[in-house]
Specification:
Layout: H1 3-9, H2 16-28, H3 30-42, H4 45-54, H5 62-84, H6 96-103, H7 112-128, H8 134-145
Length: 155
C-alpha cells in the first residue's frame, strides 16, 4: 500500500481549533512541549521509534490509527476545557439560592450548557409556581440534564 492509498483509506477531519492548539503548543509552549517529549523518551519512546524504523512500510499502517486516536484525544481535551471555561450567565429572575447552588457544582464534571439549561428550566418552573424551593428545583433539573460520561479508555 503506497502512502496516498494509506491516507485515502483513513479519511480524518482535523478541526481548525485542533490545528491552532497544536501550533500554539509548538510555538508558544516550546519548553513545556520539550519537557513532554523528554519525559516520553525517558519512558520508552525512543525504543518505540527504533522499532518503527525497522518495520517495512506496509506494517506501519497502524500508525495512522494511532495518529487519529491522538488527535481525537487532544480534540476531546480541548472541547472539555472550552466547555469548562464557557461562562454561565444568570438572568435577573434567577434566585440567589440557585446562584449559591451553582457555586457548589464541580464544573469539570459537566458542560456549562447543562447548568444553563437547568437554570432556564428552573426559572420557567418558578414562574409557574413561585412557592417552590428554587434550590431543590434547580438540583432536580440539573440531575435530569446531567449525563456523566464514562472515563475514556485512553485516559
Amino acid at each position: 500500500m503506497n502512502q496516498n492509498d494509506l491516507f485515502d483509506a483513513a479519511q480524518t477531519v482535523i478541526s481548525a481549533e485542533l490545528l491552532a492548539t497544536l501550533e500554539w503548543l509548538v510555538v508558544q509552549e516550546t519548553s513545556l512541549f520539550q519537557e513532554v517529549l523528554e519525559q516520553a523518551f525517558q519512558n520508552g519512546l525512543q525504543e518505540k521509534l527504533q522499532e518503527i524504523q525497522q518495520q517495512p512500510s506496509s506494517e506501519t499502517t497502524d500508525l495512522l490509527g494511532s495518529m487519529t486516536l491522538f488527535l481525537d484525544h487532544v480534540e476531546d481535551l480541548l472541547n472539555k476545557l472550552s466547555m469548562q471555561n464557557q461562562p454561565i450567565t444568570l438572568d435577573k429572575k434567577t434566585p440567589s439560592s440557585v446562584a449559591k447552588a451553582i457555586e457548589t457544582i464541580d464544573c469539570s464534571t459537566c458542560d456549562a450548557s447543562v447548568i444553563s439549561d437547568s437554570i432556564a428550566k428552573t426559572n420557567r418552573a418558578l414562574q409557574r409556581n413561585s412557592k417552590e424551593n428554587a434550590r431543590k428545583l434547580f438540583f432536580k433539573e440539573f440531575l435530569k440534564n446531567w449525563k456523566p460520561k464514562k472515563k475514556n479508555p485512553i485516559q
